[in-house]
Specification:
about 130 residues; alpha/beta; Rossmann fold; five-stranded parallel β-sheet; 5 helices; globular
């Protein structure tokens, strides 16, 4: 059974880039949610190996950190790994302090370090894929 990723709050362009990376590199299935309440409802119904949440959600501008905090405060969801997708180090540190795994920014999608961070939760994947 393939690994599953919930991608939250990305615009269609960024979601497509993340989906292509995750599917090509790890063979994982990517499901999209746009708002925090949608993501929480989906997480309560379905199992995911990793949640990627944008720092600012695309449809309502809500703070992705709220999803990290809600997941970590919920006994059913607290063990599910979550990463904040942001290019800003200070926001990344705030998310980690709230219980998130070290994430990455959209500017780092093609970097080996990003694939290494994802591989902790999605497996080694396709090691033949290199920088694009």
């Amino acid at each position: 059974m393939p690994k599953r990723v919930l991608d939250v709050g990305q615009c269609s362009l960024d979601h497509g880039s993340i989906r292509r990376l995750v599917e090509a590199q790890f063979g994982a299935q990517v499901v999209q949610a746009h708002q925090i309440h949608d993501a929480l409802a989906t997480l309560r119904k379905e199992a995911f190996d990793l949640v990627l949440v944008n720092r600012k959600l695309d449809t309502d501008g809500d703070d992705g950190l709220k999803l990290v905090q809600a997941m970590k405060a919920d006994a059913q969801l607290s063990a599910t790994p979550v990463m904040l997708v942001t290019n800003f180090a200070e926001h990344q540190q705030t998310a980690i302090a709230a219980g998130a795994e070290p994430g990455f920014g959209k500017a780092q999608l093609d970097e080996p370090a990003t694939r290494e961070k994802l591989s902790r939760f999605l497996g080694r994947g396709n090691t033949e894929i290199t920088n694009r």
